[in-house]
């Protein structure tokens, strides 16, 4: 038996040995780290016994809460059978069952599932698949991509090559794929100076220009449908997604819809593409796929793309991609239980009153002078803080305004993480109205304290 680990040990091991993602370690090691020991529902508890609302769904992935009995049991049941076997040249029950379920619940026409183990890999698979598809179709020059400004698709090099969050990715530029960037439909800072009343989706014009001039060299457009997450919870105007889909079709370009964040109910529908009746050529899912339990991702595609890869052995037409843990049975079992809960508890229908409450609570934030914009899609919201409401001048990054508000919120029992000057609201879908109100109370108070009242 080994002895109980003490808080002091964890803290010192963390500081001595751990390199945290997206973290300036010089600052991190100076602070007392937040160490989570357990959780239940939307609540997390730290090593000192403090409780917090998990306001960012443990980095945007938790759906039905922590320690959901049905998901816990599904994993335990599978664990009693076998933890992992490969999908290379053989199969297993949970991954086949889940493939069928995913085809049933995603937009019509996506009939084939390719598994991987995180969102970046799902994108990696998607961009390789799109490229290779055109190679087989004899469009050999289609070797680049179109992406949205402020788009985010993960941190592996392929994914970074189709992303556009400057601060994260600038340093890697020399290593990246060639891509064209089209303006984001970021209405608060509309690049065409339009507002809701005067907008006629001018931003699609720029995309059309890029596509008509370069379609011979473009394999696919990669985008986050409806909400650009890491880029600042940018909510797209209605019609943008279907407009993109039409342009892609017109110019013979594949559409890769990255639903790693927006998939599994966050937008108020099971998948964001359903809001505009769009079936992309390739769709990626990961974060909510198994309720935020373990690493799992899927890249889904059409029969047309799948069939293009079929051929005789001598043609060597194989999709050369795969990971050790592709289709891991434990992770797939958790995903099946996750989808069961959606169906058994009518989770999507149950979101309607929560979305309305969130909308009402967000209205109140508009009164604060530090709030420039409030945007919402389903149970996702972004609150953009500005120094000056008239000019929309942002707080400089040195001021760390978002982080200050979030640290204040932590003192009051809410865990959330900003995207620079944008406060993020992304609770697990199972949050109840009481907890949602509590969360918004804490965020409001924290914002008032940090920026001064009024
Ligand atoms: C988080 C995210 C990814 C990357 O997923 P990881 O599992 O972190 O690699 C890709 N696309 C979108 C839209 C995301 O939000």
List the helices and strands and how they pair.
Blueprint lengths: L6 H11 L7 H4 L7 E5 L2 E4 L4 E4 L2 H4 L8 H11 L13 H13 L6 E5 L2 H18 L7 E5 L8 H5 L4 H4 L9 E4 L20 H12 L3 E6 L3 E2 L5 E2 L4 H11 L3 E5 L23 E4 L11 E5 L1 H6 L20 H16 L2 H19 L5 E7 L2 E9 L4 E2 L6 H11 L2 E2 L6 E4 L7 H19 L3
Helix pairs in contact: 4-12, 5-12, 9-10, 13-15, 14-15
Bound molecules: pyridoxal-5'-phosphate.
Summary tags:
4-stranded mixed sheet; 7-stranded mixed sheet; Aspartate Aminotransferase, domain 2; 17 strands; 2 domains; alpha/beta; 15 helices; 454 residues; globular; binds pyridoxal-5'-phosphate
The outline comes out as globular
**What is the count of helical runs?**
15
**Main beta-sheet strand count, sense and barrel state:** 7 strands, mixed
Number of domains: 2
The hetero compounds bound to this protein are: pyridoxal-5'-phosphate
Poorly predicted regions are: none
Number of strands: 17
Q: How confident is the prediction overall: mean pLDDT?
A: 96
């Amino acid at each position: 038996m080994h002895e109980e680990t003490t808080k002091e040990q964890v803290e010192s091991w963390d500081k001595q040995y751990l390199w945290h993602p997206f973290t300036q370690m010089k600052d991190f090691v100076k602070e007392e780290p937040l160490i989570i020991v357990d959780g239940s529902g939307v609540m997390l508890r730290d090593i000192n016994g403090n409780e917090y609302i998990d306001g960012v769904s443990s980095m945007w992935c938790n759906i039905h809460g922590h320690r959901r009995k049905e998901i816990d049991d599904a994993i335990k049941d599978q664990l009693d059978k076998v933890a992992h076997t490969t999908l290379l040249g053989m199969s297993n029950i949970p991954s086949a069952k889940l493939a069928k379920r995913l085809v049933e619940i995603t937009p019509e026409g996506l009939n084939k599932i390719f598994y991987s183990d995180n969102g970046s890999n799902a994108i990696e698979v998607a961009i390789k698949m799109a490229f290779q598809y055109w190679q087989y179709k004899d469009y050999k020059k289609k070797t680049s991509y179109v992406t949205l400004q402020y788009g985010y698709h993960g941190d592996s090099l392929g994914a970074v090559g189709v992303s556009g969050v400057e601060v994260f990715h600038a340093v890697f530029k020399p290593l990246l794929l060639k891509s064209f960037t089209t303006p984001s439909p970021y209405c608060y800072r509309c690049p065409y100076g339009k507002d809701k009343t005067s907008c006629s989706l001018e931003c699609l014009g720029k995309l059309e220009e890029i596509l008509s001039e370069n379609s011979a060299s473009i394999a696919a457009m990669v985008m986050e449908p409806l909400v650009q997450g890491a880029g600042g919870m940018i909510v797209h105007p209605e019609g943008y997604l279907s407009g993109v889909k039409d342009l892609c079709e017109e110019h013979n370009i594949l559409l890769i819809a990255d639903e790693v964040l927006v998939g599994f109910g966050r937008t108020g529908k099971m998948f964001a593409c359903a809001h505009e009746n769009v079936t992309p050529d390739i769709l990626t899912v990961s974060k909510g796929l198994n309720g935020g339990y373990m690493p799992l991702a899927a890249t889904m595609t059409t029969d047309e793309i799948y069939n293009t890869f079929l051929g005789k052995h001598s043609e060597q037409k194989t999709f050369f991609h795969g990971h050790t843990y592709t289709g891991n049975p434990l992770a797939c079992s958790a995903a099946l239980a996750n989808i069961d809960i959606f169906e058994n508890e009518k989770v999507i229908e149950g979101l309607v009153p929560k979305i309305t409450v969130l909308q009402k609570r967000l209205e109140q934030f508009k009164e604060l002078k530090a709030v420039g914009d409030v945007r919402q899609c389903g149970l996702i919201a972004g609150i953009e803080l500005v120094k000056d409401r008239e000019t929309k001048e942002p707080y400089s990054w040195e001021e760390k305004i978002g982080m200050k508000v979030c640290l204040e919120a932590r003192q009051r029992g809410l865990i959330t993480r900003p995207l620079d000057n944008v406060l993020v609201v992304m609770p697990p879908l199972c949050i109840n109205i009481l907890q949602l109100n509590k969360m918004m109370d804490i965020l409001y108070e924290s914002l008032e304290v940090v920026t001064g009242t009024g």
